[in-house]
Amino acid sequence: MRSAVYYPGVGEKAKATAVEIGAGQTKSDITFHVPEQKKYSVRGIIVTNDMLGIDVWSVEVLLISLDGAPYSGWYRQAIDFQSTFPFSKIKYFDLEDVLPGRYVAYVSVLGGNWFTKKEEVKVTDHMTFISLPLEHEK
């Protein structure tokens, strides 16, 4: 589970209360109030113009935070392009438990000559669906 909360239970550093503890000291009167953070899904498809040079599990979709919030930075899922069911050049992905925020999504392929459009994704209060093209330079 990913979470980003500052003392005493706020989501923004500017609203946090500083707590100073020196070496060898303990504080027993500190209580963290951690609110439940809702999480959502980012789902979509990857469409490619060519299957040449795509090995099993050499493709992954990545979702990277643009907000710089701690512990909310990366989500990733490997994609099997070798499977031909149901369509060989279209693959579905589902990134679960994504914290709200702004992200950039793209497809990464091991090897050269692959290009993908980077898509800005805003995860708010519902599931998000995106389409990412993956093109091989011929």
Major beta-sheet overview: 4 strands, mixed
The number of distinct helices, counting runs of at least 4 residues, comes to 0
Query: Poorly predicted ranges (pLDDT <50, ≥5 residues)?
Result: none
First and last CA, distance = 42 Å
Helix fraction?
Answer: under 10%
Mean pLDDT: 80
**CATH homologous superfamily assignment of the largest domain:** Immunoglobulins
**What fraction strand?**
35-45%
Number of domains: 2
**Strand order, biggest sheet?**
4-1-8-6
CATH topology group of the largest domain: Immunoglobulin-like
Spatial shape? elongated
* SS-derived structural category: mainly beta
CATH uppermost class of the largest domain: Mainly Beta
Q: Radius of gyration, Cα only, in angstroms?
A: 20 Å
CATH architecture heading of the largest domain: Sandwich
Structural notes for this entry:
With 138 residues, the chain is an all-beta fold. The protein has two domains: 36 residues, no CATH class; 97 residues, Immunoglobulin-like, CATH 2.60.40. It is 0% helix and 41% strand. The strands form two sheets. It has a four-stranded mixed β-sheet, with no helix packed on it. A four-stranded antiparallel β-sheet has the order 3-2-5-7, with no helix packed on it. Strand 2 and strand 3 form a beta hairpin. The model has no long low-confidence stretch (mean pLDDT 80).
Write the layout of secondary structure elements.
Elements: E1 40-48, E2 59-65, E3 74-79, E4 90-98, E5 101-109, E6 114-116, E7 119-123, E8 128-136
Parallel strand pairs: 1-8
Antiparallel strand pairs: 1-4, 2-3, 2-5, 5-7, 6-8
